[in-house]
Amino acid sequence: KGSKLKWLGRSLFKAHKFAGAAHMYSLAIRACPADNKEAAKFYGSRAACQQKLGHYDEVVADCSAALEIDPAYGKARARRAVAYESKGELELAVEDYMM
């Protein structure tokens, strides 16, 4: 089920339907065991949707959730840094950029 939701989310994202894509990734997160590295990817993908929508608090939350599951997930750390920077939280952005 998760892979089908991931495919739907990716398709919606490519079509610039970011809110719909975020919803699909939310469903994928719920369908996946919380500690599964695939869940980290779903959080990261939902964060990408939120970033496109300008929802930077949600980007930070999703990237942080992804990093709790997979601390080595560099794309989530970089996306969170950009979100912090967009929010004017430069010290936090620098911390993420330096890791």
Structural summary, described in words:
The chain is mainly alpha-helical and 99 residues long. 81% of the residues lie in helices and 0% in strands. The chain has six helices and no strands. The protein has helices at 2-14, 18-31, 37-53, 56-69, 74-86, 90-98. Helix 3 (37-53) packs antiparallel against helix 4 (56-69). It starts with a helix and ends with a helix.
Question: Summary?
Answer:
The chain is mostly helical and 99 residues long. It has 6 helices and no strands.
Distance separating the two termini: 34 Å
Total count of strands: 0
Spell out the helices and strands N to C. HHHHHH
* Main structural class: mainly alpha
Shape: globular
Mean of all residue-level pLDDT scores: 95
Radius of gyration: 13 Å
Could you describe the largest sheet, including whether it forms a barrel? none
Percentage of residues in strands: under 5%
The number of helical runs is 6
- Poorly predicted runs of 5 or more residues: none
Which features does this protein show?
99 residues; 0% strand; mainly alpha
SSE blueprint and pairings:
Layout: H1 2-14, H2 18-31, H3 37-53, H4 56-69, H5 74-86, H6 90-98
Helix pairs in contact: 1-2, 2-3, 3-4, 3-5, 4-5, 5-6
